[in-house]
Design goal:
Length: 624
């Protein structure tokens, strides 16, 4: 598979204040000072009990069977860091019934470089937030919630591997790798690798009918043979799921039971059935399902509504989209219906069953629309749609126009199906055939643009960069804010537009292409055109991304002012690299710069220059 992203540069505000280093070793003593490698503590929990803002706990090689409970928070400029000493192998476990790490109502802690092995559970983030978990391996747990984010916000989980939770099958043992529950908002899971799981790899759920997670982001992750489910969205709102790869044996890649979700630029391929578990209308790459409170009393109504699923590729999957409304009583309110879900500009190719809607023997009210997708089975004019009958695509568009319109049946002509490279070749019928995500409402000028539908667009939620979009014939602009209730996009500069001008994410030709990639998008192009605003003393997360070109890349400032202490060429603080090899969308080299935010700064516009930064890193010996 070709490299998707040339490079990503993650800017994470961490420490400008260096505190005390505490050392931990299996041969140490908790009665010692702990402040030098020659006089280490014996337990991590001892170091956690004294670590203060700006301090680091450096853990030497060995296995630690502990229940670690830090007592102090860090600060935006002085987090508390727990990491392996000199990249040594540090194994954390818990033979009792506790988590290895429990962070309760704390903020600004970093957990870096550990292997969590055969523990009861790994990490519990309860309340608080602004934590960073990176470069860790998770292998073996006995709990349902393995890395539990509960009523905790602004956390980052990045460059981690999740190999296994419990042994067994989904029938016998249930675990979620990362459950995100309740009032958990603005969390980011990025560039992680997930394998066999007996329930859900990442679950985002409301809790106790009152606490609904929102504005969480799952991106650039690789899910290989999940066994049951990769992602579950259960009444959480405004979840962004983008640039992920999901492949292998699974019940569902995605179970969608919540509103206002964006799924885009994901690739779903080679799904195989779980022997004895898959059934039509229940399993598939994406399952849209309702689940009412009377079924599970601790849940609120979980209804897939107002979701936008666009520019994805579905290839060679046993089953694709399933809709299971579960309306079983005449008294069920229309508010609890599958409502306003749009599939747009996707490619469905060489799949088995394309769509299956279950009736449950009753009248079904399910509002969803497949609009302008390229849909082709394993042969032309194949029967692959089941909705109170079986249909070919042509028959469905004639008989069920409320569900199917403007779709077309054609072979997409990928660059290399064998390598699962889903770029489009010259002559592909998907080139320039994409439909705009919205159009403008009335003519106007300025930086607030009214559109017919704001739901496909994202300002990044302050977690990642905002969308780069094209409005009419204007140059690309960045989305700074989305008003979903009034359908207004606030953009990065003033423009003029006409009535019904098309609004799309960045594209190269006369119109967007169908699927993930733009044809001819081999020229170096900036994805992150600007860094968002930052405020003094506040935690800041930004990123620089570019597509194509030759790795590595160098960035320069074109306009605006960077905060004091940040340089794009000679970083003042260390850089960190991924510990593991990458697959799928993670082919890029990824590193993160640490810098202090000492002053407020305005929007910064960036451009890519050349390879100078990477050459400097090689000279510094940091790129090995």
């Amino acid at each position: 598979m070709k490299r998707i992203f040339g490079i990503s540069l993650f800017l994470i505000l961490v420490s400008s204040i260096y505190g005390t280093n505490y050392y931990v070793s299996p041969s140490g003593s908790d009665t010692d000072s702990g402040i030098s490698p020659g006089h280490p503590f014996r337990t991590i929990n001892k170091a956690a009990s004294v670590a203060a803002p700006g301090d680091s706990v450096l853990v030497m090689a060995g296995t630690y069977d502990e229940y670690i409970r830090p007592v102090n928070s860090g600060t935006p400029l002085a987090p508390i860091t727990f990491r392996n000493y000199n990249n040594e192998e540090v194994i954390l476990t818990n033979s009792g019934n506790n988590y290895c790490f429990r962070l309760t109502n704390l903020e600004y802690l970093i957990i870096d470089g550990f292997t969590f092995l055969d523990a009861y559970a790994w990490i519990h983030l309860e309340g608080g937030g602004h934590h960073l978990i990176r470069n860790c391996t998770f292998n073996g747990a006995r709990s349902y919630q393995c890395l539990w984010v509960n009523n905790s916000s602004y956390n980052i989980i990045i460059n981690c591997r999740f190999l296994k939770a419990q042994d067994g099958s989904p029938d016998t043992n249930h675990s979620d790798y990362i459950p995100i529950y309740g009032n958990s908002h603005y969390n980011l899971i990025e560039s992680c690798e997930f394998h066999w799981i007996t329930h859900i790899a990442i679950s985002v759920e409301e809790l106790n009918n009152t606490r609904t997670p929102s504005h969480n982001v799952i991106r650039k992750c690789y899910f290989d043979t999940p066994g049951w489910k990769c992602i579950g969205i259960f009444q959480s709102e405004y979840t962004l799921v983008e640039y992920n790869t999901m492949t292998g044996m699974a019940g569902q890649f995605v179970q969608l039971q919540g509103p206002f979700t964006i799924f885009r630029y994901n690739q779903f391929y080679d799904q195989t059935l779980i022997p004895g578990r898959n059934e039509p209308g229940w399993d598939g790459t994406i399952l849209l399902r309702t689940q009412n409170a009377w079924e599970h009393q601790h849940y609120n109504q979980q209804i897939p509504q107002h979701n936008r699923i666009y520019h994805n590729v579905f290839y060679n999957n046993a089953m694709n989209i399933a809709v299971r409304p579960y309306l079983q009583r005449e008294s069920d309110s229309p508010n609890f219906l599958v409502l306003d879900n749009i599939f747009l500009n996707n490619i469905f190719y060489k799949n088995g069953q394309f769509l299956y809607l279950t009736e449950n023997g009753q009248t079904i009210y399910a509002e969803y629309l497949f609009d302008n997708n390229l849909i082709y089975g394993t042969s032309a004019n194949q029967t692959m749609i089941h909705l109170r009958g079986d249909y070919t695509l042509s028959q469905a568009q004639t008989t069920l126009p409320e569900h199917f319109k403007n779709n077309f049946e054609a072979i997409p002509i990928f660059v290399n199906e064998t390598e699962r490279d889903f770029h489009l070749q010259e002559g592909s019928p998907g080139i320039n055939q994409g439909k705009p995500l919205a159009v403008t409402v009335g003519a106007g000028s300025g930086n607030q643009v009214p559109v017919t539908d704001a739901l496909p667009f994202c300002d990044g939620y302050g977690v990642v960069g905002g969308d780069e979009i094209i409005i009419g014939d204007n140059e690309p602009v960045v989305v700074l804010q989305v008003d979903y209730f009034h359908n207004i996009l606030t953009i990065s500069k003033d423009i003029s537009w006409g009535d019904k001008d098309p609004v799309s994410l960045f594209y190269l030709g006369t119109a967007p292409d169908i699927g993930i990639y733009e044809y001819g998008d081999s020229v170096l192009r900036i994805i992150t055109a600007a860094l968002p605003y930052g405020q003094q003393g506040q935690f800041y997360w930004g990123q620089l991304e570019a597509v194509n070109g030759s790795v590595p890349l160098t960035w320069s400032l074109e306009s605006g002012n960077l905060p004091v202490g940040l340089t794009l060429f000679l970083p003042k603080f260390p850089l960190f690299f991924p510990k593991f090899g990458c697959k799928g969308y993670n082919k890029a080299c990824i590193f993160r710069m640490i810098f202090p935010l000492q002053a407020s700064f305005s929007l910064c516009t960036l451009k890519v220059l050349h390879r100078r930064l990477w050459d400097q890193l090689l000279n510094l010996g940091l790129a090995g």
